[in-house]
Amino acid sequence: MSRGRREIKTFQVEETQTLGRLIGEAAQPGWIVCLEGPMGGGKTALSQGILKGFGVTGYITSPTFSIVHTYETNRGKIHHFDVYRLSGMDELLDIGFEDYLKDGIVVMEWASIVRDELDGTILDVTLELGDDPQERTILLEGEESLLEGLHLDKGWEKTC
């Protein structure tokens, strides 16, 4: 299978959330969406869009202190992780990470802490700050077929 990459620019939080919604609409059980970027880089905004696209309703917050929030939708479960405070994969396994993988999709903020030890259908998403406070460059990497299924041709400014 060939890996691919897409680069998208967003210029306001709502656009970042819309990109997330496209990812959430395409997401399938078993996917792991790994998010990386600086503090304040838009990981939670993108996560909110992903969760809404997967069918979550209501208010969505980052699980910074609880490590994981699980939401039930008509499409299955979606588990939103923030692993910033973990030291590595052993701690993630201690809280039952393998069980979360069995019954839904995983969205993980600060994924680089454990990324090298993850397997499966993975979409890597890196957010970078732009010149304007709201501007983001978002790099998506994964299997080419997965990227094509995101339908990113909906008017986004593609930079590659």
Automatic annotation (TrEMBL):
Keyword Amino-acid biosynthesis: no
Subcellular location: Cytoplasm
Keywords of the record: ATP-binding, Cytoplasm, Magnesium, Metal-binding, Nucleotide-binding, tRNA processing
Source species, domain of life: Bacteria
Name of a matching Pfam family: TsaE
Protein family according to the UniProt entry: Belongs to the TsaE family.
NCBIfam families: T6A_YjeE (TIGR00150)
Cited PANTHER family: TRNA THREONYLCARBAMOYLADENOSINE BIOSYNTHESIS PROTEIN TSAE
Protein name: tRNA threonylcarbamoyladenosine biosynthesis protein TsaE
Organism: Alkalibacter rhizosphaerae
Higher taxonomy: Bacteria, Bacillati, Bacillota, Clostridia, Eubacteriales
Gene name for this UniProt entry: tsaE
